[in-house]
């Protein structure tokens, strides 16, 4: 049963920390209404907030790299095969975090 929650902001994202029966979890909302949560329970509100901020940083880095790769491909500085291989590697690295 959810009892309490707190809200913070980081790089334009809203972070909601929710106290649940066994600890704390975080849910992040972007300005564009994208949402993510790693569905991990943390022992403190501070740990949940830190994990949320790290997730936001990773999300931003992923999208920046994704757009940079697209620009390099469109500028013909990467072949389709190179773009595809790097893109797949990027996706796999994000999934493993």
Describe this structure in words.
- The chain starts with a strand and ends with a helix.
- It is elongated, with a radius of gyration of 17 Å.
- The protein has about 100 residues and is of the alpha+beta class.
- About 45% of the residues lie in helices and about 25% in strands.
- It has two helices and four strands.
- A four-stranded antiparallel sheet has the order 1-2-3-4, covered by helices on one side.
- The mean pLDDT is about 90.
- α1 packs antiparallel against α2.
- A hairpin with a 2-residue loop joins β2 and β3.
- The longest helix has 30 residues.
- The chain has one domain.
Write the SSE topology.
Blueprint (H helix, E strand, L loop, with lengths): L4 E6 L2 E8 L2 E7 L5 E2 L8 H30 L5 H16 L2
Antiparallel strand pairs: 1-2, 2-3, 3-4
Helix pairs in contact: 1-2
């Amino acid at each position: 049963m959810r009892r309490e929650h707190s809200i913070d902001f980081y790089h334009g994202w809203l972070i909601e920390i929710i106290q649940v029966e066994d600890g704390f979890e975080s849910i992040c909302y972007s300005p564009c209404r994208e949402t993510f949560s790693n569905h991990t329970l943390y022992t403190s509100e501070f740990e949940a907030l830190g994990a949320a901020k790290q997730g936001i940083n990773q999300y931003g880095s992923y999208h920046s790299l994704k757009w940079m790769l697209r620009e390099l491909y469109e500028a013909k500085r990467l072949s389709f095969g190179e773009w595809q291989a790097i893109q797949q590697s990027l996706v796999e690295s994000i999934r493993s975090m």
